[in-house]
Amino acid sequence: MKKVNLKDLSVCVFDTGSFTPLAQRLTEEFKKVLYFSPWEGNGFPKSKFNMVGTGIKGVERIHSIWDYVDGDEIDLYVFPDCYYCTEQEYLRRQGKLVWGSAATSWLERNKSEFYEWVDKQEMPVAETIFETGIEKLAKNIKPDEFIKINEYRGDLETLKYYDRERSEFRLKELELNLSPFDKTYKALRQKKIDGVEIGGDTYTVDGKYPKSYLWGIEDKDRYYFGKIAPYESVPEQIQYVDEKLAGVFKKENTRSHFSHEIRVAQSCSPFFIDFTARFPNPPYQLQLEMIKNLGEIMYYGARGELIEPVYEDKYGVVAVFKSPTAEDYNLPIKVPDKVKKFVKVMNLAVVDGEYLAVNINKFDECGAVVGTGSTLWDARDNCEENAKDVKADGLIIDVPSKEDIENKLKELKQYGIIF
Fold it and tell me: Could you tell me the pTM of the whole model?
C-alpha cells in the first residue's frame, strides 16, 4: 500500500447538522475540509440552515457538493449519518472515494427488515408486534414495551412506554401530529428484555474489523462510558453479532463507522435490538479525540484497505448536554479555550469566536463533553473537569457520578460481563 500525505488532500463532510465536530476534527489531518448540510428544505429555505458549519477554523461551508463532483478537488467524501444513500452510491459509481454506510443503512432505517433479518440469522429476537394506526397502537401497547418506527426518526425516536399516566400523552401527540395519516401509520411495539445493554462502537471495511475495539455502555440521552480492548477480549455477545453482520458488510461493500445495541439476558443470550449505520451519537465524540489517525482510517478504508486505529487513551466518558432553549432558539455556548477540543456542539457555527448551536431541528440535545484517561475513573474526572465551565442558558450536562458508573459495572457483572 502506497502511503499518501493527507495534508495534501481534501475531504468533504456531507452532514445533516449533528456531526459538525467531525469536520472540525478533520482539519487536524487534511489540507482542506469542506462541509455541506442540506439547506433548501421544502422550497422555503431559512438562512439558519445555511449557517451550520460556518465560522469553524479550517472548515469551508459549501453551497452544494455538485459543483465539485465533475472535478478532482475533493479526494474523500464522508457521510457520517445514515441518509443520502443515493448520493453515496452515485459518487462511488463515478469513482469517488466515499466513507459512509450507503446501502447498508437499511439495517437502521427499516426496523421491519432488520428484525426479519435477525430472525433469519437464527439469532434471539425480542417479541415484536407490527401495528397499523396510532389508535390501535395505543390500545394494544403494554407497560414497559418499546415503540419503534421505520425510516422517520423525526416523527419519533425509540420510545419506552411506561404506563398510561406517564406515556399516553406522547401517543396522543404523535396521533395529532400525523393526523389524518395516523390511521395508516405503521409502528412496531417490542417487548422488554430483562437484562443489561452493551454495544460495540467501531468501523468496518467490507466485513473486516480492526483489532482494537471500542465498546461500552450508554444510559440513553445521558451519558456513555467505554474502553478500548483487543478484539478477542471484547464480550462474546458483541463478537457473535459482528460475525453475523460481517456477511452483510462484505456483500454490500460497507465502509463506514457503525455501532449496535445488544441486550444480554440472564441466559447470556445476545438480543440484537438495534443497529446504528453511522457514527454513533454518542460516542462518536470519543472517537474524534481518542483516535489519532481517524482521517487515515476513513481515506484508506474508502479505498477498501483497513487501517488499524491508533488510540490516545484507553477509557472514555461522554456526557450529553441539553437545554430547553435550544428547542426554539439558536443557543450561544460559552466554552473556555482550554477545553474547546473536548466540547462537541451539534449544528455548530462559530460567531466572533464563540460557539453557537444553531436551532434547525427542535431538539433540546445540543452536544456533549468528553473525557479520556488511562483508567475509567480518570476519564470520568476529566469529563467533569472539562464540563464545569461550559455555560449556556438552561444548559444541563449529565456527567455520570461515580455511583452511576459503579452501579452499571455491578449490573454488567451480574450477567457475566467484566468491563
Answer: 0.95
